[in-house]
Amino acid sequence: MTLGQMRKAVISFSAKCKPVIVVLILCAGAFAFTPRIALPKRGAVASVDEKTFTCRVKGGNWTYQATPKTAYWLGNTQVHLSDLTVGADVRVTYHLSGKDRVADDVRINPKVPAAPRGSASGGTERPQTQVPAPNGRTLPPQVKPNVAAGGGAGARGR
């Protein structure tokens, strides 16, 4: 085979494969530029340092990388990594970079004051007042007068 014949064969082969090569390049580009998927996770902060923080979540402890782009929120107020304290209840939105979890958004849940002991409603009960019955007596707050029955307490047997 001469040099000219070899050139013609290579040019002919590359012309036939050009569409396949273009498709492969486009597919590779699509995989290289896939958007990040935001993954949320809730837990309690176990430790914090300058560049990472660890949360106790179902299944163990997860460590997140903190970056300058990581946003920290306490309610509607933007705060900093230094405001993240051990024991805080957080919801972390992150993405994976290789095997690392990189925090994008950290929502710190504000602590809700505990309800007083013996109170099931969290301390927001209305003061209990006496309810006047139609017959002039006062009923305890839990008992409402039965006005439709024609009287109130004691109207049944009369």
Explain what this protein looks like in three dimensions.
The mean pLDDT is 73. A 5-stranded mixed barrel has the order 1-2-3-7-6. The chain has a two-stranded antiparallel sheet with strand order 8-9. The chain has 1 helix and 9 strands. The longest helix has 30 residues, at 3-32. It has one helix spanning 3-32, and strands at residues 39-48, 52-57, 60-65, 71-74, 77-79, 89-97, 100-108, 131-132, 138-139. Helices cover 19% and strands 32% of the residues. With 158 residues, the protein is α+β, with helices and mostly antiparallel strands. It has a domain at 39-108: Copper binding periplasmic protein CusF (OB fold (Dihydrolipoamide Acetyltransferase, E2P)), CATH 2.40.50.320. 6% of the residues are buried.
